[in-house]
Design a protein that fits this description.
The chain is of the alpha/beta class and 363 residues long. It contains nine helices and 14 strands. A seven-stranded mixed beta sheet has the order 2-10-9-8-5-3-4. It has a three-stranded antiparallel beta sheet with strand order 11-12-14, with helices on one face. A two-stranded parallel sheet has the order 1-13. The model has no long low-confidence stretch (mean pLDDT 96).
Length: 363
């Protein structure tokens, strides 16, 4: 089998150890005679898998006891509707939701939430092309907002928060889809955290929600029961059939992370990996990264060739060297390298070597 380095933004690379274990257990999980895909979601075998996954995630992120962890379907995009349907009902009408607009994903969130509440864009980085996070002293927050929404890592634009916003007593909601588990998080600073699994956690189809208990029980009447956070919490994420195989893979990833030394150890590795690639880009006039240095993502690194007529040749050469899925998102163009937890340091070295080789042959 040819070794490749997969820089996809998602669905993304998974640890080889996890894939090997899943392959070994595919036909018979722990002597049960069943594949995980064949198990009843409420049977003792799968409940053991689920409980292990929930416990390991709680340990990895030091989730306080007064927070519930929910395993849902729908992905991060669907959560942009599910979150307001669960939270805007906790305040008197007309409910206002504050947003900080830092790129493509927070933009999608703004449009979706506007269907359920009045939206206030408290700050926006649009004028600068979404290359930074607006300083918090510029935010125009609403005193009695239902919540404040931030996307703490913009997968497409490559912008990441280097600070935890202070929004007082208003719940802070964070879309952490593309950098959750890549660095320690003080969960107690947030009212709700959500993220699609297909970046740092597992396969597409699973969404995680970490929500403070006092925010449960406020769903709008139009909210489907399968997306009512209190209903899901009361039923240990088994109110309806969850994405069982995706939960199983996520559980294996959680155990792998613990074996690597936990989230703090992964952050140290991610700092090295991102630094290696940013140093290569910054030291060259042939490439450019347009994100402000104090807001650069460690997970998603967009970059551009100054002569974009060379884009096709660059991608062709990368493919020949088994450096896969480096094409940037269609909305912004250029290139993008996603350096999730499972991307080994060797992969980043291989990419940096190719950057230098391509520049030398096309300068």
């Amino acid at each position: 089998m040819t070794e490749v380095f997969n820089f996809s933004a998602g669905p993304a690379v998974l640890p080889k150890e996890v894939l090997k274990q899943a392959a070994a257990e595919m036909l018979d999980w722990h002597g049960s005679g069943m594949s995980v895909m064949e198990m009843s979601h409420r049977g003792p075998e799968f409940m053991a898998i689920y409980q292990d996954a929930e416990r390991d995630l709680r340990e990895l992120l030091s989730v306080p006891a007064n927070y519930k962890i929910l395993f849902l379907q729908g992905g991060g995009l669907a959560e942009n509707a599910i979150v307001p349907m669960n939270l805007v009902g906790r305040v008197a009408k007309p409910a206002v939701v504050d947003f900080v607009h830092t790129g493509s994903w927070s933009g999608k969130s703004i449009k979706e939430a506007a269907k359920y509440a009045k939206v206030n864009v408290a700050a926006s980085a649009a004028a600068g092309g979404f290359t930074t996070v607006p300083p918090q002293d510029s935010w125009q927050l609403t005193k009695d907002a239902a919540y404040v929404h931030v996307c703490t890592n913009e997968t497409i634009d490559g912008v990441e928060y280097a600070f935890v916003p202070d929004v007082g007593n208003v719940p802070l909601v964070a879309d952490m889809s593309s950098h959750i588990l890549s660095r320690p998080v003080d969960v107690s600073r947030y009212g709700l955290i959500f993220g699609g699994a297909q970046k740092n956690i597992g396969p597409a189809g699973l969404t995680l929600v970490i929500v403070r208990e006092d925010l449960l029980g406020h769903a709008l009447p139009i909210c489907p029961s399968a997306f009512d956070f209190k209903t899901i919490a009361d039923n240990e994420s088994m109110y309806n059939t969850p994405p069982t195989y995706a939960i199983y893979i996520a559980g294996l990833v959680f155990k792998w992370l613990k074996q690597q030394g936990g989230v703090a150890a992964m952050e140290a590795r991610n700092i090295v990996k991102a630094g290696l690639l940013y140093d290569a880009l910054d030291s060259s006039d042939f490439y450019q990264n347009r994100v402000a240095p104090d807001a650069r993502s460690r997970m998603n690194i967009p970059f551009y060739l100054r002569d974009e007529a060379l884009n096709s040749a660059f991608l062709k050469g990368a493919q020949e060297r088994h450096l896969l899925q480096l094409k940037g998102h269609k909305s912004v163009g250029g290139m993008r390298a996603s350096l999730y937890n499972a991307m080994p340091l060797d992969g980043v070295h291989a990419l940096v070597d190719y950057l230098k080789e391509f520049e030398k042959s096309h300068a």
